[in-house]
Design brief:
Blueprint: E1 13-15, E2 21-25, E3 37-43, E4 49-53, E5 55-60, E6 63-68, E7 78-86, E8 92-100
Parallel strand pairs: 1-8
Antiparallel strand pairs: 2-6, 3-4, 3-7, 5-6, 7-8
């Protein structure tokens, strides 16, 4: 009997603490005219829910980008669950995890400033 495993690759969105920023997603459905996208941010620690309306919606090659204003609830080193859905039909079109940091994305490390390397000897072992 063949043993199959289902793999899932998770990429999280990294945002900074500025209140207005662009977010890009690959939704499961494309928005039709008059259908606005609502963003639901759920703080993983406090379970608080924050709803925001996406504005300036553009879609290019299946990637939907939008401008989000008033993200003043984003605090550094905080995780959020993100759900995007249409305001008319409440159909969820995207789910992801968000991490908030002010580190530069190319130099980002989740362990920034936590671990320090110590000078190591030449690793000589005494054998008897």
């Amino acid at each position: 009997m063949q043993n199959l495993k289902k793999l899932r690759y998770i990429i999280m969105i990294i945002l900074n603490t500025t209140t207005d920023q662009y977010i890009s997603i690959i939704p499961t459905q494309i928005s039709s005219a008059g259908n606005e996208i609502i963003l639901e941010f759920i703080n993983e620690t406090t379970k608080e829910i924050f709803l925001k309306l996406a504005s300036t919606l553009t879609t290019t090659n299946d990637i939907t980008s939008f401008y989000c204003e008033g993200l003043n609830f984003l605090k550094e080193n905080t995780f959020f669950n993100l759900r995007c859905y249409f305001n008319v039909s409440n159909v969820v079109i995207y789910k992801d995890r968000v991490f908030v940091t002010n580190q530069i994305k190319s130099q980002y490390s989740i362990n920034d400033g936590q671990y320090r390397t110590t000078p190591i000897d030449n690793n000589n072992y005494i054998t008897i």
